[in-house]
Design brief:
globular, six-stranded parallel β-sheet, UPP_synth-like, alpha/beta, Z-farnesyl diphosphate synthase activity, Undecaprenyl pyrophosphate synthetase, EC 2.5.1.-, UPP_synth-like_sf, UPP_synth-like_CS
Length: 269
């Protein structure tokens, strides 16, 4: 049964969640990615084109995010990870950083109950240092609230950087090696994966970036080793579940080889 349409008195009124009249395409069997990662880019450019502040651009993305979560559920995606605040974002102006801290906290506070009703399990990936305590508290509360849910796993990457994640994992292993708890010869890909922020997160199948930029920006580097990349020109505030479905359709056309050879017909040449 589809979740009920959702509106919230505190929601930014750019878009409402509507489960009627929008159905995903008939994707080929087995073509829906298990794990989709999204870099939500283009808020600032969208705001500039609208004659608004960058902060207004960020605010416009809240309803979009809920719409994309809804679209992922409809499509049958099992894991959705979004880049909410990177470790590089600390370089932005103090005013914008303060806004983004409060914004991520408040969005989660406003939306956690609805996501819980949708059977979504909320996870957090990122570092604690420098994060506001109120942000950490909200993230951890949402994780506890939804821990028993069995639907879409929605990972918010807040104060996250792919290189930092690997450094933290390697440091953890190095400490164990130095203490004699692990032999150096026991260090493996499997062990490193277990030391990442969300150890049970599967590899990314489909990596999506909005706004037309074509780079990963240090997002889920380990997990995206064999991800299919789809870069869409749509700015994030104009994004929707329909754009997500377009990305999945493109993904369905790809031949994923994971380093293997291309299957070509034998021409006898």
């Amino acid at each position: 049964m589809s979740p009920k349409p959702y509106t919230h008195k505190d929601a930014v009124p750019y878009r409402t969640i509507d489960w009627t009249g929008l159905e995903p395409p008939a994707f080929p069997k087995g073509a829906v990615p298990e794990h989709v990662a999204i870099v939500m880019d283009g808020n600032g450019r969208w705001a500039n084109r609208q004659g608004l502040t960058r902060i207004e651009g960020h605010k416009a993305g809240e309803e979009v995010l809920l719409d994309v979560v809804a679209g992922a559920i409809q499509a049958g995606v099992k894991h959705l990870s979004v880049y909410a605040f990177s470790t590089e974002n600390w370089k932005r102006s103090p005013d914008e950083v303060r806004f983004l801290m409060g914004y991520n906290r408040d969005v989660l506070h406003r939306r956690r109950d609805q996501l819980n009703e949708w059977n979504v399990r909320i996870r957090w990936a990122g570092r604690k240092p420098r994060l506001w305590k109120s942000v950490i508290d909200e993230l951890q509360y949402a994780e506890r609230l939804t821990a028993g849910n069995t639907g879409l796993q929605f990972t918010m990457c807040v104060n996250y950087g792919g290189r930092n994640e690997l450094v933290d994992a390697v440091r953890s292993i190095a400490d164990d090696v130095a203490a004699g708890r692990i032999r150096p010869s026991a260090v493996s890909e499997k062990l490193i994966a277990k030391r990442l922020y969300v150890p049970d997160m599967p590899d990314v199948d489909l990596f999506v970036r909005s706004s037309g930029e074509q780079r990963t920006s240090n997002f889920l580097l380990w997990q995206s080793a064999y991800a299919e990349m789809v870069f869409l020109d749509t700015l994030w505030p104009d994004f929707s579940r329909v754009e997500l479905w377009k990305a999945i359709e493109l993904y369905a056309t790809r031949n994923r080889r994971f380093g293997g050879a291309v299957d070509t017909p034998d021409t006898g040449a």
